[in-house]
Each structure stands twice: as structure tokens, then as C-alpha cells.
Known about the structure:
By secondary structure, this protein is mainly α. The protein has helices at residues 2-35, 42-60, 64-87, 96-99, 102-127, 153-175, 177-187, 189-194, 199-225, 234-247, 252-268, 281-292, and strands at 132-133, 143-146, 149-152, 227-228.
Amino acid sequence: MIMDAVLLQGIANGLSLGLCYALIAIGFTLIFGVLNAVNFAHSEVYMLGAFAGLVIIQAFAPPFMAVVFLVAAVGAFLGFGLERIAFRPLRRARDEASLKSRALREATLMSSLAVGILVRELAELRFGGDMQPIPSGAMLNTPIAVGPVILTTGDFYIFGMAAAMLLLLQFLLYRTKIGLSIRALSDDLIGALYVGINTDRVIVWTFMIGSSFGALAGLMVGLYYGTIFPYMGFAPTLKAFIAMLMGGLNNIPGAVLCALLIGLSESLAPEIMPTRWVDLIAYVFLLVTLIFFPAGIFGRKAERV
Length: 305
């Protein structure tokens, strides 16, 4: 009975952790699906979402849902600025060879990495490198007993937030004009350009949606754990990136499932191995995927990680 309770507790904690990875992975996957480029500044969007929540709470102490909408707006603004600064200047050419070139992918990768490093250093200068505590009244850590399992309000908020955002994303992608355009660019950027789709506008929308998800993930993690710091985005964003690779690069459901797998594995692993080895689990998954599933577990056979 004790082991059953420990297992259930580990599963509950792993689902919360995996859903946080999933919210970050969705942003990665959206942007990669449209541009075929990795946005390595996404970890800073995640971090700035957490700090934006802290500033808003300290300044106005608004209701939780108001904080959520404000942080989502901040994330959308960050995505808009990131696309304009780090990606659009490198897409001046409109010919097929330039848009599909390896040089463009490498240039956008390095550009986003440079912007991310700059933003992280500026955040450290502004907020300091130490842990910043979340006001106790805003934290989502009230314990709730569910049978033998002790959950917190944060677990329920994270699950509800992830479910709502995934449903909203499905609605946007399959029931709106901008969602149709995003899927068209994901299938064939050159074809979408030739049939008259405003690709720049669609790419901006993609960055805004993906960055909103990343910023909200940072907010939820900050409120859940109670502390934030400028380098908080590196580890979870790297694991979300691995989840995207495992899922098949541009497969959103696959990325979400793989993020849950990573979260559950990290939560349950301390029962069978030393805690110091837990962070290696995601990299083992990545290695196995690259060897046995070169297109990703849920990816198309035509594309390779």
C-alpha cells in the first residue's frame, strides 16, 4: 500500500513536470514547423514570463486569471520582437534556394542564440543572479489530499492550464484562417508564398502564439516552485527541445506525449537510481531516438532529426 502511494505520488508529480515541458515544447514545435529553424531564445521567453508575473504581482496584486492574461500578452509581445530582431532580417531573400538553405537555418539558430544570451545577461543585471521569491499569497502550493496522494493547487492549475491551452491551440490551427495559414506554411513554405499567403504575417503570429505558451509555462513554474532566477529557462527548455526531437520535429501531439514521458521518467527515476543521475534521462531518450527513430518517434519517414 505504501509503494502504491509512492508510485501515485510520483506519477502526479511527473505529469505536472511533463506538462510544463509540453507547454515549452509546443512553442518550439510551432516555430520549427513553419520556419524549419530552432528558436534558442525560447528559454529566455520562458524566463521573462516568470519575471513578468513577479513584477505584475508585486505592482498590482491582481487576480490569478488577470496575471495569466497579462503574461500571455507579454509573451506575445516578446515573440513579436524576437521575430523582428532575430529572424526577419535573415529572410530577405524569397527564392526557394535561399529559404531552404542550410546557411539560413544556421544563421537563424545563431541569431536566436545570441539574442537569448543578451536578454539573459540583461535580466541578470536588472534582477540579479540570486533566486527571487514569489510572494507567498500568489504561490500555488496549498496541499490537497486526494486519497493517499498529496497534490497542491499548482498541480490542478498546471493541468487545467495545459488542457485549456492545447484545446485553444487546436481551435486556432483547425478552425481559424490564421491557423490554416500556419498549417499551410508548415507543409510548404514556398508553396504558401506562391499562392499569395502573407508569410511574414503568419510567421509573426506563430512566434506570438508559441512565445505566449512559453511565457505562461515560466509563470506556472514560478508560482508552483516559489522562486525564479535568470538562468531558470535553460534546463527545462533543453528538455522541451529534446521532447520536440523525440516527437518528430513538427508533430505537436508527439512533442506533448514525449514531454510527458520525460516528466514521468524524471519523477519516478529516484525510486530506482541515485538522484544525481536523473537529469541524464532526457539525454538517454534523445540518444535512443537518434539511433532507432531518426525521424522521431512520431515523425514522418521523409525527415530526419
